Amino acid sequence: MFFAPKEIKEATGESLIYCQRRVMVSKEFTFDAAHHLFNYEGKCKALHGHTYRLQIAVSGFLDERGMVYDFGDLKAIYKTELEPKLDHRYLNESLPYMNTTAENMVYWIYQTFAQALPNERGLQIEHVRLYETPSSYAEFRREWEHG
């Protein structure tokens, strides 16, 4: 038989935090969008669309609940900062001026998400991976920011 704890053991000094090290959490999203590429000779020169798959990973130290960052909070940043410019949009018009390659887009997503992430418990964005097709993606990592 299993007995769920009924209270937090604050009086004994015990903590809900088991891991004292940095931990990474990641959330995945999908969106549909259209774009075309400039200065490119191939099929993608013409207007076309994709169902993109986006993975965003952040790391930090655990809070009093034993969590790095709530998955719902990751989703909230996506919903407010990214989705309005990405989902069911013509990316050449909704994003800043760029050639809307997966490589350019993944860096813009990285920067946008990083700016919205709270500055607490060492939270930092680790990487963003943007799949343009099920087998093709571009990725940007934190360690590449200054290199």
From TrEMBL:
<dbReference type="Pfam" id="PF01242">
    <property type="entry name" value="PTPS"/>
</dbReference>
<dbReference type="GO" id="GO:0070497">
    <property type="term" value="F:6-carboxytetrahydropterin synthase activity"/>
</dbReference>
<dbReference type="InterPro" id="IPR038418">
    <property type="entry name" value="6-PTP_synth/QueD_sf"/>
</dbReference>
<comment type="similarity">
    <text>Belongs to the PTPS family. QueD subfamily.</text>
</comment>
<keyword id="KW-0479">Metal-binding</keyword>
<protein>
    <recommendedName>
        <fullName>6-carboxy-5,6,7,8-tetrahydropterin synthase</fullName>
        <ecNumber>4.-.-.-</ecNumber>
    </recommendedName>
</protein>
<dbReference type="InterPro" id="IPR007115">
    <property type="entry name" value="6-PTP_synth/QueD"/>
</dbReference>
<dbReference type="GO" id="GO:0003874">
    <property type="term" value="F:6-pyruvoyltetrahydropterin synthase activity"/>
</dbReference>
<keyword id="KW-0862">Zinc</keyword>
<keyword id="KW-0671">Queuosine biosynthesis</keyword>
<comment type="pathway">
    <text>Purine metabolism; 7-cyano-7-deazaguanine biosynthesis.</text>
</comment>
<keyword id="KW-0456">Lyase</keyword>
